Amino acid sequence: IVTVNCARLLKADHHATNGVVHVIDKVIATTTNSIQQIIETEESLETLRAAVAASDLNSLLESEGQYTLLAPTNEAFEKIPRETLNRILGDPEALRDLLNHHILKSAMCAEAIIAGLTMETLEGTTLDVGCSGEELTLNGKPIIANKDVLATNGVVHFVNELLIPDSAKTLFELAQESEVSKSMDVFRQAGLSSHLT
Questions:
Q1: 196 neighbors 187 (Cβ within 8 angstroms)
Q2: What is the phi/psi pair of residue 60, to 5°?
Q3: In sequence order, what are the residues at sequence separation of 6 or more whose Cβ sits closer than 8 angstroms to the Cβ of residue 50?
Q4: Beta pairing class for 135-138 and 126-132
Q5: What positions does the domain FAS1 occupy (predicted)?
Q6: Residue 169 has what pLDDT?
Q7: Mean pLDDT in residue range 150-157
Q8: d(Cα 101, Cα 124) in Å, to the nearest integer?
C-alpha cells in the first residue's frame, strides 16, 4: 500500500505527453508544523508536552527525519494510577523509555498499516498492529483516537491509552501482569513489597 502524505495511491503511472499522473484518494493539504510543534499546540497533549520537555526529546521531534509518534492524550495519562505516573515522570530513564516506546522509526500512515504488522520503536521494542472492524489496534486494543495528523518530519496518531514498556515498570508491576502474581502476594505478606517497587 503506497501513500502520499497519508492519501492512498489508487492508480499509478498514467503516462501523458508531458508527464505522468498518479491518482490519489484525497486532497493533499500543506504541512508546516513539525511533530514537536503539533505537541506544543494541541490542548489534548498537555501532559505529553511536559513529559517530552522533561526527557529532552524536543530536539528529536523537531529534527529532520521521518517518525511516527503515537501521542498519548491527557486522557491516556489519567488512566494509569497517579503513583505510577509520578514514579515514571520522576525517573528520567524510565520516562525516556516510555516516550521512545511511542515513537516509530519511520512515518506510517494509517492507510499503509495492515493487520499483523510488527513495528519497531525507538526504544528497540516492537508493537503489534491489527484491526478490529474499521479501527486500528495496537497490541490488540483499539486505542487510536485520531489518526494521520501530518507533520513535516512524520505523522502523529493520537492514542487514548499509555503503552508502558517493561523497562519503565517496577519488578512488582511486571510480576502482577505475569504468571508469578501469586508469588507477589507472598512477598507482600512477608513485608518485602518495598524491595520490588
A1: yes
A2: -65, -45
A3: none
A4: antiparallel
A5: 1-28, 32-163
A6: 85
A7: 95
A8: 8
CA distance 33 to 35: 7
Backbone angles phi, psi at 126, to 5 degrees: -125, 155
The span from the CA of 118 to the CA of 188, in Å, is 37
> Grid coordinates in use for 156?
502523529
SS3 of 168, please? helix
The residue among 71, 144, 66, 72 whose CA lies nearest residue 111 is 144
Cβ count near 64 (within 10 Å): 7
C-alpha cell at 8: 492512498
H-helix segments, 21-162 = 35-41, 46-54, 58-61, 74-78, 82-89, 92-100
The pLDDT tens digits for 8-24 are 999 999 999 999 999 99
Q: How many CB atoms lie within 10 A of CB 89?
A: 17
Q: Which of 78-92, 113-127, 134-148, 180-194 has the highest mean pLDDT?
A: 78-92
Q: Please report which residue ranges of the chain form alpha helices under DSSP H.
A: 35-41, 46-54, 58-61, 74-78, 82-89, 92-100, 171-176, 181-189, 193-196
Residue type, 45: L
pTM: 0.86
Of the candidates 22, 20, 21, which has an alpha carbon nearest to the alpha carbon of residue 10? 22
Residue 106 cell numbers, joined: 519511520
Per DSSP bridges, beta strands 3-4 and 103-104 are unpaired
